[in-house]
Amino acid sequence: MLSYQHAFHAGNLADLHKHALQAWMLDYLTAKPKPLSYLETHAGRGLYDLSGAEAAKTGEAAAGITRALSENWLAADHPLRRALSDIRARHGGTAYPGSPLIAAHFLRPDDSAHLAELHPAEHQALSQVAGFAHLHRQDGFDMAQALCPPTPRRGMLLIDPSYEIKADYQTIPGQIAKLARKWNVGVIALWFPILTDDRQAAMVTALTHAHPEALLSQVRFPPARPGHGMVGSGMLIINPPYGLTNEARRIEALYDRL
């Protein structure tokens, strides 16, 4: 059974990068009065408490979203800040949303959402906060391949593995190639870590060669603690919405100052 639990890392600098772009895309997509589909392959529990023991143990949120809010990295009207304010109004001032609840903030009654989470405890926790979505306790790639192209055909797929399965780096380009062929109008967004040993590099090269029109956004930051292997965050987005490149470059510039 997979052991990764995101509660130790929720709200860190990688989450900030990923969620700022996710929220921007969903805000853009839902501005048009056409229904959409939102799919997520590795949903996690959906809601985290930054005052909990897990967050306190690593301190990653303090260096991420907590610092970003105190230093106003995000404007008051930024989509992520709006979503966070709404979720904290309902769940408390130390709540932090995973990507499912960020999506829930933007999705409308006519939209369709499908969330996959294989870990039993994380799936159970997700079921308590994700009543807006169809939940799937199965491999997320199996779910995505079975549902794509979804109905409605307009929409977004977020692929956010833990990469606890090391073979993901080799198999993800093939998975995305199949999904992009099936759902050629979908926004397909992949998050990946940037690691000190660069094990992600071959995957990123394969994806950029196969999808030359995709947006690649990468940021770097200090390791969370001495010896920690993750030193950055990446997003590769096929069919990026208009204007996303400018937002990605703005977010990247924030990290350049770290």
From TrEMBL:
PROSITE patterns: N6_MTASE. InterPro entries: DNA_methylase_N6_adenine_CS, RlmJ, SAM-dependent_MTases_sf. Transmembrane segments: none annotated. Its EC number is 2.1.1.266. S-adenosyl-L-methionine binds at residues 19, 42, 99, 117, 139-140, 160. Pfam families: RsmJ. It catalyses: adenosine(2030) in 23S rRNA + S-adenosyl-L-methionine = N(6)-methyladenosine(2030) in 23S rRNA + S-adenosyl-L-homocysteine + H(+). The record marks 4 as: Interaction with substrate rRNA. The active site is at 160 (proton acceptor). Keywords: Methyltransferase, RNA-binding, rRNA processing, S-adenosyl-L-methionine, Transferase. Gene3D superfamilies: Vaccinia Virus protein VP39 (3.40.50.150). Belongs to the RlmJ family. Specifically methylates the adenine in position 2030 of 23S rRNA. Monomer. This is Ribosomal RNA large subunit methyltransferase J. It comes from Paracoccus mangrovi. The lineage of its organism: Bacteria, Pseudomonadati, Pseudomonadota, Alphaproteobacteria, Rhodobacterales.
